[in-house]
Amino acid sequence: WPERQAVARALRTETVGGLILLCAAIVALVWANAPFSSSYTTLRDTHVGIPALGLDMSVGHWTSDGLLTVFFLVAGIELKRELVVGSLRTPATAALPVVAAVCGMAVPAALYAVTAAAGGGSMDGWAVPMATDIAFALAVLAVVSTHLPTALRAFLLTLAVVDDLGAILIIAVFFTSDLNFAALVGAFAGLLVFYVLQRRRVTGWWWYLPLGVLIWALMYNSGVHATVAGVAMGLILRTTRDQGEEQSPGARTGHLLHPLSAGLCVPLFALFAAGVRVSGDALGAVFCSPEPLGVVVGLVAGKILGVFAGTYLAARFTRARLNPDLAWADVLGLSVLAGIGFTVALLIGELAFLNSVTGEHVKAAVLVASLTAALIAVLLLRRRNAVYRRLYEEENRDEDADGIPDIYQRTESSTS
User: Fold this and answer.
1) Is the distance from CB of 127 to CB of 170 less than 8 angstroms?
2) Which residues pair with 56 in a beta bridge?
3) In a domain, 416, yes or no
4) Among 175, 197, 317, 389, which is most exposed with the fewest C-beta within 10 angstroms?
């Protein structure tokens, strides 16, 4: 249907996906603080599933362990594409954004640790400020940018993809409960079958959909966070086309699932993850308690320091070079933008402070820090956008309407 195609095209744009995510977060905040907030917690904590298969989870857990797997599957496909045919395929082009991503994870974690230790708080949330939200960050950039260089978006996308990979590894290594080795072996066996099917060029969703659900269920029961299954399958999917193929399996799957991820899975996760009670005491705890304060410092100050300083030092002392289309002021704006840590930061916060008051304060801190980073980034990037717009207008001004920009004629006349 034309209407369905139009909606799908809209959901594939960062702007629309980010706005839906923002709306879901606002609805969650309003609902959780309304007089009828008990309906929110009742719905979120309602258990549904099949206990005999080890899949008896609350609605909130279904969104974080189930629906969010689709988001990580799409992220895994994007990462695979970047590694094979994108900006991560050669060390020369990948060096700066990769260094920026690594430093942008290490410095926020270090600042959280320092802040929490100084206040006598828990170190459990050290990984919360490490993650950059791809959807929100790209949405803000898309809204602000009319004349910013395309290299800025490529830099941000590469940084966010590497950042997501780091977050996935952290979830797998540090937030894994007691392992069920039988289920884990079964999940790896399913991934091996998935790989063989890809290598044999087997097509047909009826092979992959049941197998994917089985891999996800085994991964969940193994004790490893179930979203890791999505990333693993995304990395296995082939992203290069065979002769005669219009699209690779990875591109086709990502194209089909991106609207589902942006329009349903991620917003529903935000709806049940961002519903924290906001009061004077709660906001005071964000800036007075060591754990949430560490998250704010890590996301706002840590991302700026880590991304910008890492990029500058790598360009200064190694052979890596900043894209000539970018200025250091652009990198500063991007560094602030990287402080928007919503989806994955909320997920790690849930895992680190499960069902605790501190966890609610950490969620509020993620929201406050992400909003602060977004506002500062908008101010900086709007100024840079105005600079590039003036340059564009100057380069394309044609006052005598002869079809040749005046700047070239001035250059020719001065030369003659």
Assistant:
1) yes
2) 49
3) no
4) 317
Q: pTM, whole model, 2 decimals?
A: 0.78
Place of tokens 């704006």: 333
Distance CA 89, CA 97 (A): 13
Tokens of 324: 């000539």
Report whether 140 contacts 156 (CB < 8 A). no
Give the CATH number, domain containing residue 356: 1.20.1530.10
Beta bridge partners of 58: 47
Distance CA 367, CA 360 (A): 11
Token reading at 85: 């045919």
Residues contacting 44, CB < 8 A, separation 6+: 58, 59, 60, 272, 275
Q: Which of 221, 395, 368 is nearest to 298 (CA)?
A: 368
Helices 249-260, 2-11: crossing angle, 10 deg rounding? 90
Q: For residue 183, is it within any domain? A: no
Give 153's Cβ-side CA count (13 Å radius). 16
Q: Estimate to the nearest angstrom the gap between the alpha carbon of 278 and the chain centroid.
A: 25
User: Which amino acid appears at position 279 of this protein?
Assistant: S
Q: Are 108 and 299 in contact (CB under 8 A)?
A: yes
Number of domains in the chain: 1
What is the spatial distance between Cα 53 and Cα 385, in angstroms, rounded to a whole number?
53
Helices (H), 223-326: 227-236, 249-260, 266-273, 280-288, 290-297, 303-317
Q: pLDDT of 354-368, one tens digit each?
A: 878 888 889 889 989
Token pair belonging to 20: 């839906």
User: Which class for 19: exposed (0-12), middle (13-18), buried (19 or more C-beta within 10 A)?
Assistant: middle
pLDDT band for position 350 (cuts 50, 70, 90):
confident
Taking the CB of residue 244, how many other CB atoms lie within 10 A of it?
5
pLDDT in tens, 108-164: 999 999 999 999 989 999 999 998 877 778 778 877 877 888 888 878 877 877 887
Query: Which residue bears the tokens 């991620």?
Result: 266
In a domain, 46, yes or no: yes
Separation of alpha carbons 229 and 187, rounded Å:
8
First-residue to last-residue Cα distance in the chain = 60
